[in-house]
What we know:
Elements: H1 17-29, H2 33-38, E1 55-60, H3 79-82, E2 87-89, E3 96-98, H4 102-105, E4 112-117, H5 124-133, H6 152-160, E5 170-173, E6 191-192, H7 211-216, H8 222-228, H9 245-254, H10 257-263, H11 270-276, H12 280-294, E7 298-302, H13 323-347, E8 354-359, E9 363-364, E10 369-371, E11 374-376, E12 379-380, E13 384-390, E14 397-399, E15 401-402, E16 409-411, H14 416-427, E17 434-436, E18 442-444
Parallel strand pairs: 1-7, 1-8, 4-14, 5-6, 5-7
Antiparallel strand pairs: 2-3, 4-13, 8-13, 9-12, 10-11, 15-16, 17-18
Helix pairs in contact: 5-14, 10-12, 11-12, 12-13
Amino acid sequence: xxxxxxxxxxxxxxxxxxxxxxxxxxxxxxxxxxxxxxxxxxxxxxxxxxxxxxxxxxxxxxxxxxxxxxxxxxxxxxxxxxxxxxxxxxxxxxxxxxxxxxxxxxxxxxxxxxxxxxxxxxxxxxxxxxxxxxxxxxxxxxxxxxxxxxxxxxxxxxxxxxxxxxxxxxxxxxxxxxxxxxxxxxxxxxxxxxxxxxxxxxxxxxxxxxxxxxxxxxxxxxxxxxxxxxxxxxxxxxxxxxxxxxxxxxxxxxxxxxxxxxxxxxxxxxxxxxxxxxxxxxxxxxxxxxxxxxxxxxxxxxxxxxxxxxxxxxxxxxxxxxxxxxxxxxxxxxxxxxxxxxxxxxxxxxxxxxxxxxxxxxxxxxxxxxxxxxxxxxxxxxxxxxxxxxxxxxxxxxxxxxxxxxxxxxxxxxxxxxxxxxxxxxxxxxxxxxxxxxxxxxxxxxxxxxxxxxxx
Length: 456
């Protein structure tokens, strides 16, 4: 008999916390900020054919949120499927979601649910690639799992560029697993903000220096050296106008009052910070709203851990923890932060401008597993749910449906390519674009997929 305290093999594609931080920083660790700007010249051939003020804010539920506990509950299914939670009505007749999401239930007219997304990728690594690129299962199978095709964020950044001049276009809090720009180039990798905005000591040290300090470094490169973390000597005595244009752009970002203000979460009223929740997820989501409002194009928040959880993801295998105990910790936080984002974006007249997406790379099996009496669910991409709000899309509806057990799609199947095509349409990215890969071949931004007509 195996011991109940045996060490179980780590789920493929799952990194421990230290390895996760290392992999999340790989895209920026070998290049300085000025180098990233310089690499922009490599993108010139593709051009930026359209101007758009649209933005994307993603609350990424890495590990795979079970649809059976969140947005597609099955109260009439057999016990081994339906689990412990029950659905509640929302303010849109006919739409029900988890009892642990009451704030969202009161705002169902402000979001849309896709309940029929599906893919065949079985693991975290290939599922992430499938969901973020539309190309199935193509990822290097060793850390840091760099994708072979550019993700939706890199494509959007390449095509649309800065939303507001001088504001970093692509930011992640605290990092993202398995995403990347592939052959589009490292200049499209995100700015990583790894700190916890809920900590009183939180700062972006390179962006929130005192005004006098920022003024002084306007003619120096000392802060630039600190910011891009290169271990090399830079000429700290050179004048700003002697720098090349890429270094000037980097220094301008570092001395920008707009950027510094955006990262100063202490400017928010205490009531607003309370509304998001005084925890790392709540304050990162509030920071994401601040960054979007200040002009960032794409901001993603990795929703990994809340107080009381054993988990650092939504990967609820029976062999590691009790899915219902973990969901009771995390669902109220998800409810609070997403409701706050929906309200905040509406209050600031940004709902049509900003597409808010809540999703992970997969779901988990409709049929429960059992490990020594502990319930859980395993990897599953055949039926999964996605929440979208704003972005000019049609809200207050559900697209697609699954059967009584939640394990088959019975209405309106939707592919990852369809989801990404919907994002691209909402953001203003032409769907017929192609880029040249490392082998010199023209490669479409999506292999296939059409915008979800019910939403667009």
